[in-house]
Every structure is written in structure tokens, then in C-alpha cells.
């Protein structure tokens, strides 16, 4: 903890500098700079507040110890001992909280995401499950106050999806949904099963951070743009003009469709932003083979053996195999109540990081 405390003293000094800068008229008049400083100040606020509380508690403990060792009034001594008992517990809790807040942060945690869900092993049932996962994430996003936009899809005749892509925007989306990368397995009786037998199918989920400003030039000749009418539920046209836009990056086959904006120009701009982000993600690897290997590591091949989570409908059970967590609330999970699973994954990751820091100390 000594190393962490040394870091914190410097961090508190920097935090105070940021607060002074936020009161500087020159900074206030520079909107972009002010926003950047405000964000940094907000990111540091919690750890600084907890550290200040930690120091105040430690000082109060020291003061009480002086009373205990020098005071003759037994009532005062007993009161000081009781206070220290509570304060020492609080200090231990604050230490743990500060350690977690000081862990290295994933630079993508604050970013919005692009998610791809694909039906894998299991035919029609896999595509139906892909649709169920889509609705699960949509409901979870709604509970979190996030926004969801469908960017491209390949529906199946049975009402599911062979592939569906969506963009989720909001506060710290990637920090919570990055753990959804992988193969998801479902065990249930398909609607087409006349004998009542339980079948096993899989769908894969890929989560990519959205890069706000991507340093990549895309040759306009490499993009095919199709425009069409925006449609609402049930395929009914809600726009008499062709405002929806579909962009295809020909060298990679990446497709982005956007119809959420009010005009074709707005849809073009948003589609291009997402397309650049996805093409950038694609080319981050040195070559196509590396990219494919990374994708296989991230989402698996869709084989039933490569799974991160199992959704068992007959037993109303969800199991996350990475951390050995099983909860009997499948109905609630599919209704978007993912907090218990995601919080457990975050805690597991933080615990692993703390163990590594302790080993390297």
C-alpha cells in the first residue's frame, strides 16, 4: 500500500491543479480544453475523496490513541477505543476501495461500442437465440440509460438473425459489455421440436470499442453506398424519402446500415463514422491472418465446446464458465437483468489485477 500512497500524494496535487485550471477564465473560454480538464477532474474525484477520508480517519485514530495512552478519564478512554474500532474497519475498507480505483484502467472503458451477434452452431435455433441475445442487450442498455442503434443485419426466415450489428452509446458502455465477447450456449426445446427434446445451440458475440477519431483514410472508390427508405416495425415505411444509408467497404466486406438519423446526410455521416471505426479495428492487425486469429480468440468458432456462458431454459439457469458463477434467474437475465453477472466479472478481473500487483510488489 506504501507505493499506492506515494502515487496518491502526487495525484491529489494534480487534482488540485485541475480544479484551479477549471476556474481560470482562459480555460473556461476554451470549450474543448475545459471539457477535457473537466473529464479528467471527474475521473480523479472519487479516488481523491476516498484518499482524503482515509487520511482524516488515520489522523483521528492517532489522536484517539493519544487519548487512550494519556487520559485518566475512563469514559473518554472507552469512547476513543470504540471510535477507533469503527474507524479501523473503515480504513481497511477504504484501502481496498482505493487499491481498486488505482488499478490501471482500460483506455477503451469510456468508449461506446459496436456489437456483432451471429447465429453459430444449431441452424435455425442458433439464429433465434441470436435474436434473443439482441433483445437481452437492448433491454440491459435501456436499464443503463444507453442508446441502441441497429447498424446492419441479416435476418432469417424463422424470425432470428444469422448476423446482426448494433451500436450502443452511453456512459462507460465498453467497461461493462467487453466481458460479453465469446460464444454463448443455449439449452432448450426448440419451437420446431415435436418430441420435446432439449437441443443445444450457440451464438457468438463480438464487442469492439468505437474509435471517435480514427486516423484512417478510406478510398471513396472502395465504398459502395446504397440508399433506401427508413422503415419501422413490421417493415412499414415511415419515411417517404430515401434517407436510410447502407455502406459496404468492398475490400473487407464490412457493412454498415444507418437509418436512425433524420436526414440522409446525417445517416451518411454516422454510417461513415462507424464504418471507419470498424475498418480501423479490422486493420489494427498486421494482416488478415492475424485479424482472423484475434476474432477466433474473441468470439470463438461457435463450437459448443468454446463457450463463455450457458443459458439453460428447462432449469431457468445461467452459468458463466469463466468465473464459475451460476444463478437461477434465466428469465430475469434474458429480460436485461445482467448486473449480477457483469458485476461478478468486473470483481473477478479486479481481484486478478490486485493479485498480480501483489506478486510483483
Q: Could you describe the 3D structure shown?
A:
- InterPro entries: PCRF, Pep_chain_release_fac_I, Pep_chain_release_fac_I_sf, Prokaryotic/Mito_RF, RF-1.
- Keywords: Coiled coil, Cytoplasm, Methylation, Protein biosynthesis.
- The chain is α+β, with helices and mostly antiparallel strands and 361 residues long.
- Helix 1 (2-22) crosses helix 3 and helix 3 packs antiparallel against helix 4 (74-101).
- The chain has helices at 2-22, 25-28, 31-70, 74-101, 124-144, 173-177, 264-283, 288-299, 330-333, 339-360; strands at 113-119, 147-155, 161-169, 182-188, 199-209, 223-228, 244-249, 254-258, 309-312, 317-320, 325-327.
- The model is unreliable at 232-239 and 297-305 (pLDDT under 50).
- The chain is flat, with a radius of gyration of 26 Å.
- It contains 10 helices and 11 strands.
